[in-house]
Write a structure and sequence with these properties.
Layout lengths: L1 E13 L6 E3 L21 E2 L2 E2 H9 L4 E4 L23 E3 L5 E3 L5 H11 L2 E6 L6 H12 L5 H8 L10 E4 L12 H13 L11 E4 L7 H11 L5 E8 L15 H28 L6 E9 L18 H16 L4 E7 L9 E4 L2 E4 L1 H9 L6 E7 L3 E4 L2 E4 L1 E7 L5 E7 L6 E7 L6 E8 L17 E2 L3 E4 L2 E6 L3 E8 L1
Parallel strand pairs: 1-21, 2-5, 2-13, 5-8, 8-9, 9-10, 10-11, 11-12, 12-13
Antiparallel strand pairs: 1-16, 3-4, 6-7, 14-15, 16-19, 17-18, 19-20, 20-26, 21-25, 22-23, 22-26, 24-25
Helix pairs in contact: 3-4, 5-6, 6-7, 7-8, 8-9
Bound molecules: alpha-L-arabinofuranose.
């Protein structure tokens, strides 16, 4: 029996709903086909957005969406994507797949998508190949409510009211595809560019995000915080789980137990990354005013055989469900510093929650995890600790269990607990300080480690009601099957 200790009296921080955010780039079939099919498409749509995809994302309570990249952001010139569609520039997306980019999805379409989803907008600006003026005018175009050249242009393009831009990223991966800059150079550029990201209305503040480190580049964080910490609201962090190496990453569905544990071990590294970057941020920002924004995370495998390698299309199995569950628990536990996180990417790219094929759509195991974790959104993190033992093979050892716990505004306790073992089930007993369990309901996602949904079998992996528990005289115990993600809601 493994005990899970929970102290409902000890609240450790607020869990922003944005910890469950998403990312959509002009990459492969993410925007085009996956989300936007155009108004004249036979695929049922509203103003060009797929109805099936929008409905599924609303059900999952998508809180925020980042756009237009990624690497694409530093090549994107926003004026190419406004005005009558027939006169928008046609070009090649040289970064991703060498396909036609007709700019039919631009600023107005992104804002329309956010409106339909009921989510916040996170726009990523271009530092790498754009000018300060271009960035400044984009912000003016989107958010200025008054007479100005850019606000007038927006109105001429059919939108009278200003849009709300909740988050604005000043460049993306400026140490790499966003300009290959050194940290000192970027820190100066960040200070300059962000000066002209004007906040025109106190009611619609813009949360400014500086480009942060890749993985364990602690020097980047140190330099950015030292030179520009006072000018930013957030600092990004990118970390992908790659089972192999960047040359041979590994298959999304053909893997053995050794690779299962390697993938989960590499996923758990997120905890160390956040702790160490946070410790550096603490030196310059004791009050934790600046958020750590993990705006790219997820699995990155070799793309599916026969698909365009520049499209980053990959399948999604129970292993991805565990990767999602582990990361989301880690973000919860670091909610004092982590203020937003965005899985890469929304549809048809990397660790997607949705895959599409023509007019067909399927929900991946990762989708079901987000749908279960949504109960943590805007909750209060509770102090919790689960007893564990090591499982795994050779150097790839991981704890068998991993959890996070929150309390919602109605006083219900939400436990999300993952069984990382590919083969062993475990008995678990939640032990609550000064509280008695009165009622329980649960949802579980479980299967064999390689299980995934296909267009022929779209519901092979799906969440279901969890009943394998016993509640007697206030004592709750349950059996957690191998390879599973569980959400329990407890009434006390
Ligand atoms: O998500 C795919 C790419 O990964 C993004 O465009 C880039 O920011 C990162 O390297």
């Amino acid at each position: 029996m493994f005990r899970l200790y929970i102290n409902p009296q000890h609240k450790k921080g607020h869990i922003n709903k944005e910890l469950q955010g998403h990312f959509s780039e002009h990459l492969g079939r993410c925007i085009y086909e996956g989300i936007y099919v155009g108004e004249n498409s036979p695929v049922p749509n509203t103003n060009g957005m797929r109805n099936d995809v929008v409905e599924a994302l609303r059900e999952m309570q998508i809180p925020v969406l980042r756009w237009p990249g990624g690497c694409f952001a530093d090549e994107y010139h926003w004026m190419d994507g406004i005005g009558p569609k027939e006169s928008r520039k046609r070009m090649i997306n040289t970064h991703w797949g060498g396909v036609l980019e007709d700019n039919s999805f631009g600023t107005h379409e992104f804002m329309e998508l956010c409106r339909q989803l009921g989510c916040k907008a996170y726009v990523n600006g271009n530092v790498g190949s754009g000018t300060v003026r271009e960035m400044s005018e984009w912000v003016e175009y989107m958010t200025f409510d008054g007479v100005s050249p850019m606000a007038d242009l927006r109105k001429a393009n059919g939108r009278k009211e200003p849009y709300t831009v909740d988050y604005f990223g000043v460049g993306n991966e400026s140490w790499g595809c966003g300009g290959n800059m050194l940290p000192e150079y970027y820190a100066n550029e960040y200070r300059r560019y962000q000066t002209y990201v004007r906040v025109y209305s106190a009611e619609r503040p813009i949360y400014k995000i500086a480009c942060g480190p890749s993985e364990g580049d602690y020097g980047w964080t140190e330099t950015l915080m030292r030179m520009a910490g006072g000018y930013m609201d957030g600092l990004s962090l990118h970390y992908y789980t790659v089972p192999g190496n960047w040359e041979k990453k590994g298959s999304a569905t053909e893997f053995d137990e050794a690779e299962w544990y390697k993938t989960l071990r590499k996923t758990l590294y997120m905890d160390e990354l956040i702790s160490r970057h946070s410790a550096i941020m603490d030196k310059y920002d004791k009050e934790k005013r600046v958020g750590l924004i993990v705006d790219e995370w997820g699995t990155w495998y070799d793309c599916e055989p026969g698909t365009n390698p520049g499209f980053l299309y990959q399948q999604n199995s129970m292993r991805d469900a565990l990767v999602a569950g582990i990361n989301l628990n880690i973000f919860n536990k670091h909610c004092d510093r982590v203020k937003m996180a965005n899985i890469a990417q929304l549809v048809n790219v990397l660790q997607a929650v949705i895959l599409t094929e023509g007019d067909r759509m399927l929900l991946t195991p990762t989708y079901h995890v987000f749908n279960m974790y949504k109960h943590h959104q805007e909750g209060e993190l509770l102090d919790s600790y689960v007893e564990t033992e090591e499982t795994g093979v050779e150097e790839d050892k991981v704890p068998n269990l991993q959890e996070s716990v929150s309390m919602d505004k109605d006083g219900h306790i939400h436990i999300t607990i993952n069984n990382l073992s590919a083969s062993e089930a475990y008995e678990v007993e939640p032990v609550l300080a000064q509280a008695v369990v009165k009622e329980v309901k649960g949802t579980i996602l479980t299967g064999s480690m390689r299980d995934h949904n296909t267009f022929d079998e779209p519901e092979r992996v799906q969440s279901k009601e969890f009943t394998d528990y016993s509640l007697k005289d206030g004592r709750l115990t349950f059996k957690l099957p191998a390879c599973s993600v569980l959400h329990l809601e407890i009434g006390v």
